[in-house]
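protien #1 (seq + structre)
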Amino acid sequence: MSYFKYIDNGNGPTKLFLGGVHGNEGKTSIKFIKSLKQEDLSCGQFYFYNFDKTDYISTIKKEYYESELGQKILN
């Protein structure tokens, strides 16, 4: 993983945000993720992952979750 950010914003649901899981998208999503501050978010736990350039595998296909990147996300 090229970037990870965790924000504890108190009680509430846990939310997972992923960037860079579809090829080159990590180049643009990283700017957004790095700009986030605790006060920008609702209550809950936030996990942000942004990956370097990856091969494109649709996240709706089982093969994605069997890939190395898919396994990093799940574990």
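ok now protien #2
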Amino acid sequence: MKSKISTAVSQIPLSGIREMWKRAAQYENVISLGIGEPDFNTPKEICQQALQDALQGATHYTQSQGDPELLKAIQMYLYGRLGEDFSIPQIVVTTGGVGGLTSFFRTVLNPGDEVIIPEPYFPPYRHHIEWVGAKAVLLQTRFENGFVPTPEALEAAITQHSKVLLLNSPNNPTGAIIPAETLDSIAHIVLERDLLVLSDEVYERLLFDGRTHESIRTRPGMKERTVVVHSFSKSFAMTGWRIGYAFGPEWLIESMIKVVSS
């Protein structure tokens, strides 16, 4: 019966992380450097509010874009974090951060399009790109450069089929943060080559040693071509809740909502 499985899915290997979990379970006192999971539970205040809302009947379908109250809360959160007044049509709630990634890919990619991804990268990126018939173009980074993609390497990776640059900063798995001056150069190339940007910023609040994070969408000309993916999983220790959101230009989010609702 395995022949009934689609070719696209059959060609995707099982997650290496899951395989390592199985092996690690055979040993004691194993230190996990695997999945991005906070070492504490979801704060009680969040759990209590969710329970209260559920008991009061907030258990039904919401609009496709997301629950209006949640959308408003995200809007206020983004204003507090970024100092920018987003409109509600610029935001969409997704099933975790991965839901934002897949919705974006299904919205913008056609068969044969190319997505440039700096290595090392979060493994599901490639799978979701290939599922829609597009191609992942891997951009090598080097230890001596802090695993940060260089503008020169990016320029060399672009072809006539390039459509999207996927950035993940802070990076999973390396923790690398793209410096401000590198973001400037990358943004210049993106504008010059007319690319879209998907910026996975799920780890944007996990910063140490006084380091700061900047989004590429803050660069001139980038807001109209960048979608940012966030998740409640890391920032609020809500990995099991599977709640994420994406924000960006209204023209693009509007089409992502079509995908989310389908």
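The domain at 64-261 is CATH 3.40.640.10 (Aspartate Aminotransferase; domain 2).
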